[in-house]
Structures are given as C-alpha cells and as structure tokens.
Amino acid sequence: MIVKISLRQLFLAACLLTALTTFAQKAPKPAAIHLNQREIRFDDNWLFSKDSLKNDFRIVQLPHDWSIEDLPGQNDSTIIGPFYKYSPLKEQGAYTLGGTAWYQKSFTLPELQGHLLHIRFDGVYMNSDVWINGHHLGNHPYGYTPFTYNLTPYLLPAGKPNTITVKVKNEGLTSRWYTGSGIYRHVFLVNLPAEHLDVDNIAITSKFDATNATVCVNTAIPKDTKLHIRLLDASNIVIAESDSEPNKNTETNNSTTTLTIPNPQLWSPDLPYRYKTEISLIKNNTTLDQLIIPTGIREIKIDPKTGLLINGIHTLLKGANIHHDNGLLGAAAFDRAEERKIILLKQNGFNAIRTAHNPPSPKFLEVCDSLGMLVIDEAFDVWQQEKTPADYSRFFPNHHTSDLASMVRRDRNHPSVIIWSIGNEIPERIEFRGTLAAQDLIATIKSLDTTRPITAAFNNFRPGTTDKWEDADEALALLDIAGYNYMWDYYYLDKKRVKDRIMVGTATSAQNLQHAWNHVEGLNFIIGDFVWSGMDYLGEAGIGHSIYAEKDSLRLSWPWFNAWCGDLDITGEKKPQSYYRDIIWRRSPIEILVHTPDTVNEKTSFWGWPDELPRWSYPGHLKKPMKVRVFTRAKYVKLEQNGEVLATKETGQDLSATFEVLVKPGTIVANALDRNKQPVGVKFLVSTSEPAAIVLRADTNVIKADAESLSYINVEVMDKEGNVVPYADLPLQIKISGPATLAGAGSGAPNRMASFQQLKLTTFRGKGLIILRNNGHSGKIKVEVSGDQLKTGRITVKAK
User: Fold this and answer.
1) What pLDDT digit, counting tens, does each position of 116-134 carry?
2) 149 has which bridge partners?
3) CATH of domain 693-799
4) Residue among 777, 772, 782, 799 at smallest CA distance from 337
5) Using one digit for the tens of pLDDT, what is the confidence trace for 516-534?
6) Integer Cα distance of 686 and 52 in angstroms
7) According to the CATH classification, is domain 7-191 in 3.40.366.10?
C-alpha cells in the first residue's frame, strides 16, 4: 500500500514532535496518579504555550482562560491589561485576543488491573485536538459541551510517563460576545472497571401523586449483570431500594428499575430537597461499579390555560439571561465563581436563568439544583447560517446532533433544568432548512428525554425584509413553548390568532419590564420573563449604555469592553435597574434614584438605563437642582429633605413620581403612602463626607486549602461616618501574604480598561473587588489595601 503524506501533514507531525520534546524539557516531574476513586481531578500543573511552539512554556492551573491575561507591550493607550485596541474581535469580543495555544501534562500510573482510563474535558474553547503519547484522540470543535476520550489503548506501562497534549484554536470572530480561550472548565481522569456504569446513559425520572412518588432509573447494563438501586434521603437513610432483572442477553441491554417512595419530599424553587440515587452494578454478588446521583422529585406541567405548574403550583419565571463568563476571571469556570453568580441572582429576586446561548458548566447546574434556581438549558446561538465569520455554523452540520445529545445526557438528571432550548434568534428559522434542523434537534432531545418542554427564542424580522412575524407560526408550532425575544407587544395579539400557544419572554429589556411583567402576571399562557441581562458580561461592549453625545450607536467602541446591560455589574454590585425590578416584583415598597447633574444629549440605549443612582452626594453641585425619581406601587410619594416636607405627589402609571431637589448636605427621605395617605414604606439617601478609610469584606472567612478555592473580598471606600462614598473613584494598592495569589482585581466600570491581574485597582462608585486563589496550602491569608490619605483596609482569610 502506498501512503501519500502532504507537506502540511509532515509539518504538523514535526510541530507535534517539537511540542512533545519541548514540553518534556520544561515539564515538572510527572504527576503520580493514584487510582483510588472513580473521578480524579486533573487540573493542576499544566504546561501552556501561546501561539507558537517556539514560545517558552509556563505552568498554569485549570480552569484557565488565556484571553483575560495581560498582553505583552503594555502602554496605557493601545494595550491595557488583556485589551488590545486593534483586536480583530473588536467590541464584540471585548477587544481581547484569541489565537492558538498548546497545553500539556505528564503523569504516571500504577497498574490498571483491568480497568479503563478515560479523560473528560468539561469545556475547551474551542476547536480542540487532543493527543496521548503522540496518538491523536480526536477533535472537538464546540467550546461548550463536554467530551471524553479513552486513553487505555495508548498508555505506557506502569510507572512510565504518559503525556497529554491539547491544542486549542480560537481563531477569528467566533461569537457575538466574549468567549474566553483555553481549557476554561475542569478536566478529569475517569477510572472505570472493565464492566461499568455509563453516567451519560443513566436517566432518572420521577412522578408523584397525593401520597407516593415513583423514581424510575433507566440505564444500559452489561450481560450477566444486574442493578441494585437505593434511594437515600438527605440524612443518608435508605428510603427505598430495588433490584433490576439480570441481563441474560448476549450483549449490553437497557434496564428500567422503579422505586416507590411514600410521602416524598419534593424539589421546588423554595425548598430544593434532593435525595441520592445509589446505583450499583452487580455480578455474581460482587459490586463492580457504583454511582450516586443527586435526585430531585418534581413535576413540570405546562398548559395555555393554567401556565407553568411545578408540583401543581402556578409558577412565574422571574428570569435572567446570563452569559458564561465570570467577570474579572474571564471565562474560567471556578466552582466558587459559578456558585456566587447564582447566589447573587437569587438574592436579587430571580428564580430562573436562561443559559444564553450555550450549555453551562456542570457546577453551574449543581448549584442551581441545590439553591432552587430554575433553568432554561440552551444549546446553540447559531445553526447553519453564520452570525459572525468564524462561529459554530461551520461545525453545525456535522456536530449538532452529538453536541445536543451531549448536553441532554449530561443535564437531564438535574431537577433545576425545566426547559430545553434549541436555539436563539436563528436567522434561517422559517426557511425549509431551518424547519428540517429544528425537527432534527427536537427529535434528538425527545429520543433522550420526554419529560421537559422544548423552546427556542424567536425575534422579529429585521426592517426592510419581506418576512412578517406571522410567517414564523409554522416554525413556532414545532415547539412546546414559543420563545419571544423583545416581542411583548405581540403576546395578546398572537394568542387571539393561535389559541393553544404557550409563550415565554426569552429576552426583554429592563426599561420595558413593567409592560412585559404586566403581561406575565395577567395572562396565564405567558409563563415568565427573562431580562437581558441578569449580570454584566464581557463583550458586546456598551449595548446597555447611557451616554452624553450628539449621536448614538448600537455598541460602543474602545475603551468600552463590557455590555453594561445587566441588573448587576461584573463584580456583582447592584445597578439602578435592579432597584426598579424590586418594585415591579414587589420585593421593595419604595426606591429612590437620582439622575446625574448632566442631562444634555443623554442617549440611553434599548438595553440601557438612564444615568441615575441611589446616591445623594454631589459635592461639586451644591445648591443645584437634581432630578429625583421615586419608584413605588403605593398611591402617593411624600419627599422630605433634612426634615422638611418638599412635596407629596401621586404616583404615575409608570410607578414613579419625579421631583426636582436642590443639592444640600444631609438626607432625602421618600415615604410611600397608601390611598389614605398612611405610610407603607420608606427609603432614604444620605450625603457623605470625604473619603476616609478602606473597608474590606470577605464572602467567607474560611476557604478550603485547595488550588481552586476562591475568596471574594469586596473593597469599599468609606467616609468617617461609615458610609460608602459613591463618587470615590480612587487608585488603590493591594498586598497579599500567605497561601494565596491574586486571581482577579478590578471594579464594575464598563469603560475603564485595566489589568485584572495586577496588585492594584481603581474603585468605581466607591467600590472594587479582589478575588483570591488559594495555592493548595493551609494557613492565614492576609490582605491589605491602601490608598492616598485613606486608612488602610485589612482582612484575614483562613485556608484549611
């Protein structure tokens, strides 16, 4: 046989050989892997090289996003931190850089003793190739789905160094927002017996009636084996157990086992109770393999007359769209970062998240399960037709089925996932090819899970096209729930045309929240509303802006780098629209927002909010009038300043009353009054004195001694009375001692570019954020933050 090898193949082979040799020269001692558990975290001490095989390698810890790292050649004008003014990604990619990079890790193993060893990547952005000892295991283009390779046939004998090499290629504009680059989620070695359970092929479903629940476990088992299944409660007490029938077939066969639970505790957003399903694979009275899967018993029903019922209770989705990045950390999916994001959203009234527009990390869903956060699990932003020149559309034809199946198999046992979404604003959605793609995607989901409804987010057609909104009826009819992006004005009209349609506002804007939410509360066939967005994110720079300019634009350019459309900023601080949401969702009786002094030529974008804050400190504008807006559902608002009643006004239909107030030191107080002018709520704002001190507050004072443990430290500039000074945008210096390094430092400012990885930050509206990363050792971590003429802030966090 004659084998033809191209010059390109020879070059790639030579490059790989060079990579292997170079990595080996730079590598630390190969990690000794102990096969004493089923899953072994494989995140530590990877070698990393950017762009070229000739570059020096350095050691990194996963999760890792190279696009958030400082670029060489810093100059304060065109290269600032990770931002490059002439980046081909421009404002959509937050002026960062992608490119190609290499990772490598060497390790030794004991004897496998008949076991199989796999490697699982939870997420690599994007287009990755993986080798083991020079053997190419495969290519995985999509940056958001997990993938696994069997290493066993290519491993060297026990004690010999094995080497994993990963090439990551994030070239060109691959998305409409910041994606990050690299192995940004966890990596695991998976140690399996020769006959084992496949976690991706296990489906756990539940049903319940007034007194009992049934839990069904469906999975494939090898021949001559059976299952022993136990259901344990939160105290590890066995509630039910059952054995499957033995598999007498000559090959692997599906098995379904049912357990009955009397008086079950149900999983719900308010009480997210979870059992544990323990699945043991048995052969000849010997346990070959065992898995424990957290299990929530809950029931979802949707109906155009009753809306969404969870366990029979009518539920309105108070939703947030969020992208996958973690602010100052870039896309790196640290467990604590994923957890904190969901906690913040829950604290601010949200009970649902749409994972716009891709599958989230496993930890994200684990936290949603534990906290009772409902999820629309979304697969794709594009199908066949591109939105950006190098996006997933080039891979969709050959990979959409496997990527979607990967998402559903991984996520179907999470009780928090209540809806699948197959796409967002797909350009070809009403074309014949779009219909075929939708049917294919729906069929893929239903082959794996029939317990959840399916949606997709549709927006209106662009002006100037011949397509009309009604032309989408046939495509929407394929879905269980019609997703409406920014189409709240069509809810009632469409219901009159299409009687059985169930709708959800998959994307709305904060300025239009009242109008959209009135529809949700008043019309049962609309099951919820998802704002764009719950938190600020990197990329799509400035789409949520309020600026002072003669002309406006959809996005803003350098130095804007984040979208600025979130209820919370990238550090988790509350923004003005979040206070307004508290009124709409009846979480607060009254809120005050004060517009900045400058109102000339203010341009507020569709996703933006006027330039106002809950602030009464404007030292440069004393005795000048300010516009004060008070939001409340009460009938009247009485406004006082320094004990003097300024006016009482009736609340408008937009739930606000507007006052003009002269700036004076002291306090303004807004009183919410009912129809009888009796008080039902009060809110005040106080002016501050000059910045005097720095105060540090940690989210937790104790963290685990683990290289992936994080501690978030909020930085506040206070006056002498202990109030945050909202106009204090001050440069501060950071010192860290003890077993930790800086993972990120910065503020929520959307247009003040800076490094997130230096021991300094400039506060924004008196606040900043420091993120510490433990180095794997225990001890006291001490942090000091200092600034000119300010009392130094100090805090200690223990790692143990």
Assistant:
1) 999 999 999 999 999 999 9
2) 119
3) 2.60.40.10
4) 772
5) 999 999 999 999 999 999 9
6) 56
7) no
